[in-house]
Amino acid sequence: MTRSLNPHALFALVAGTTLLGIAGTDLVLPAVPSLPEAFGSSIERAQMVLAAYALGTLVGLLAFGELGARHDPRGLLVWSLGLFTLASFAAAFAPSMEWLVALRLAQGAFGAAPAVFAPGFIKGMFAEDRAAAAIGRLGSVEALAPALAPIAGASLLTLGGWQVSFFVLGGLGLVLTLTLVALSGRLPGRAEALERHKTYWTILSSRRFLRYALSQSFALGGLLVFVFGAPAVITGPLGLGIREFVILQVVGITSFIVGATLSSRLAVRFGVERVIVSGTALLAAAFLVLLLYAATGGTSLVVVVAIWIFVNLGFGVRGPVGFHQAIMAAEGDHSRGAALVVAGILATAAAGTALVAPFIALGLWPLALGGAVITGLATLLLGVLADRS
Question: Where is the Major facilitator superfamily (MFS) profile domain (predicted)?
Answer without folding.
Answer: 9-389
